[in-house]
Structure formats: C-alpha cells, structure tokens
Design goal:
The chain is built from seven helices and no strands. By secondary structure, it is mainly alpha-helical. It folds into two domains: about 55 residues, no CATH class; about 90 residues, Arc Repressor Mutant, subunit A. The radius of gyration is 17 Å and the shape is globular.
Length: about 150
C-alpha cells in the first residue's frame, strides 16, 4: 500500500510479485539478503502497475535541477504518518523515488533500474520531494501555530 493507493492494485502486485519470486527462486544467488531481493521484486511489481496506468509524467521531459542542500532535520522531525500524508500531494514519480530511497533505503542506481530512469533523474526527484515535504511541513506547522495563537 506504500506504492499503490488502491487495495485491489496492491493485491494484484503482491500476487504478481510472489509469482515472480517463486518463478525465479532458482536464479537467486546467495550473495545478498533474501528479504532485500524479494523486496526489490515487490517494488518492481508495484511500479509496473503504476507505469502501465500512465499516471506519471514523461520522465525525459523533466529537467534535472541542481541538488540543493536541504535541512534534513525538518524531515527527521516528521512522523511516518505525516510524511505519508504529505507525500500524497507530490507527483507519482517523486513520491515513488522518495519512498524507495528514504523508506526502503535503496540507492539511486537501483531506483533508476527499477523505474527505468537515469540515476541523476532519481536524485532530482528525491531532491524535489524533500523540498516539497519541507515546504508543506513548515506551512502545516505555521498554520497550526497560528490556530493555537488565535485560541
């Protein structure tokens, strides 16, 4: 459900992923953790559903902004529920990259392979998502503080 909003789509992705896992278990090399290998298959399965719905922007049309230094303490102060709630308003591709990089701990080269984008595009989307989250969190907090002051 982290990657797909619709429960039916999530169930389909889960079923597809398990099928792929059992189908390719013979090719698994014990060089890494089995759980991580399975997680990558699951994420790919979710991404294929998103990609097939064509809800995301044309990746090549997106410019590659310079990575800016953001105050990571803002995101550190947020709860997981706050992050997931604020992520709903961010573009699908930036949301997916953020979840893969921050929540799953994946590297940009792995994200790029799964989403079929360049590593630099993955970095740009992560930077954009962090910036938008920071702005939304600050806006949300300033609104809450204003409401408390009014009381």
């Amino acid at each position: 459900m982290r990657y797909l909003k619709n429960k039916q789509e999530a169930e389909d992705a889960l079923q597809d992923a398990w099928f792929q896992i059992f189908k390719s278990i013979k090719t698994y090399k014990e060089t890494g953790q089995l759980e991580f290998w399975m997680k990558k298959i699951m994420i790919r399965s979710c991404w294929l559903i998103v990609k097939n719905k064509k809800r995301h922007l044309d990746i090549e049309a997106i410019s590659h902004p310079q990575s800016e230094s953001l105050d990571s303490t803002v995101i550190d102060k947020m709860t997981c529920d706050e992050i997931l709630e604020l992520l709903e308003d961010i573009s699908v591709i930036a949301r997916q990259v953020f979840k893969m990089a921050v929540i799953e701990g994946m590297k940009h080269d792995e994200i790029g392979k799964i989403l079929e984008i360049k590593e630099s595009t993955s970095r740009a989307h992560l930077s954009r998502a962090r910036k938008l989250l920071k702005e939304k969190f600050n806006l949300k907090n300033s609104y809450s503080n204003a409401r408390i002051s009014a009381i």
